[in-house]
Specification:
- The chain is α/β, with parallel strands linked by helices.
- It folds into 2 domains: about 120 residues, HUPs (Rossmann fold, 3-Layer(aba) Sandwich); about 120 residues, 3-Layer(aba) Sandwich (Rossmann fold).
- Strands 3-2-1-4-5-10-9-6-7-8 form a 10-stranded mixed β-sheet, sandwiched between helices.
- α3 runs parallel beside α4 and α5 runs parallel beside α6.
- The chain is globular and about 70 Å long.
């Protein structure tokens, strides 16, 4: 495989969303005619049950505890590596059965945001689950590293929220005219994500309906340059509530939007529009920064 050819990166673990992440990455790889890479990261956070008592230990006992911790960590590392190899092999087999031939499967130590930052220059799109193994069973929760992972790169990210795998049929593009939204508009115009069967809905929400209508006209004009046929809707009201209502009323399965246009400090005090949408919506997401 040519080193200059960018790939779709699937970030997988043993979570309940893992198979869907692999499946959507395979679909994107086929649709974009790009290679695929499966990545499993190992973040070491092992903690011995004896560690809490360290303050009451003598020097000799502390030395023994360090040896014990070292043995436990080695055993934990071996277990995580073995589990990761199984996960990667299953994903690779899934890609081969789908007819893909340019497939890479890799493990690396460290956090997911670190890995994404290191690999960004090689990636055409990232696919990851909205939550990992630690959040299995929590239907509305988001993974602890999700926002950091999204902010780590400016490559488009497909966020999988539903473990049920199905080819996208209806995409809602939430356009608000912000800088990141304009970048998202250009990305969608290029057509990488838009198959012939995909129904694209351009939806603009503003407190002033006339302003929303102007945004619709602007967005529709740009998408027409890429021969992207769209259904359009201008809505007055509060953005998150109206967008989620539109999703539900029109059976939207994927939401596209610019992500995190404000910095972390703004989000800390005022709440992030991106995070609210991810939390309150049930669709998968295509996020562009």
């Amino acid at each position: 495989m040519s080193s200059a050819k960018k790939y779709v990166l699937a970030c997988i673990d043993g979570s309940e969303l893992g198979n869907a992440v692999s499946g959507y990455a395979i679909w994107l790889s086929q649709n974009s005619q790009s290679p695929i890479k499966f990545l499993h990261t190992i973040e070491h956070s092992h903690r011995s049950e004896n560690a809490d008592h360290e303050g009451r230990l003598t020097p000799n006992m502390k030395e023994h505890l360090l040896d014990e911790l070292s043995d436990e960590e080695r055993a934990e590392s071996k277990r995580l590596i073995a589990e990761g190899k199984t996960i990667l092999n299953n994903a690779k087999n899934m890609a081969e059965q789908a007819g893909l031939t340019e497939i890479i499967a890799k493990q690396r130590h460290g956090t997911l945001p670190e890995a994404l930052a290191d690999l960004e220059a090689e990636i055409i799109m990232v696919v990851l689950g909205s939550k990992g193994e630690d959040h299995d069973g929590n239907k509305k929760g988001l993974g602890s590293q999700l926002e950091e992972a999204i902010r780590a790169i400016h490559t488009p990210i497909f966020i999988v929220k539903d473990e049920k795998l199905a080819e996208p049929k209806k995409l809602m593009f939430a356009y608000n005219g912000s800088p990141t939204s304009k970048i998202a508009l250009e990305f969608i115009k290029q057509g990488m994500f838009c198959t012939a069967s995909l129904e694209v809905h351009l939806v603009c929400v503003d407190k002033n309906l006339a302003d929303a209508e102007k945004l619709v006209a602007e967005g529709k004009s740009v998408l027409a340059q890429g021969n992207i046929n769209t259904k359009t809707k201008a809505i007055s009201g509060e953005a998150v509530g109206e967008l989620i209502r539109y999703q539900q009323e029109n059976d939207i399965d994927t939401t596209a939007m610019g992500a995190f246009s404000h910095g972390k400090v703004h989000g800390l005090f005022f709440g992030s529009f991106t995070t609210r949408m991810l939390l309150e919506s049930s669709t998968n997401f295509l996020l562009i920064r």
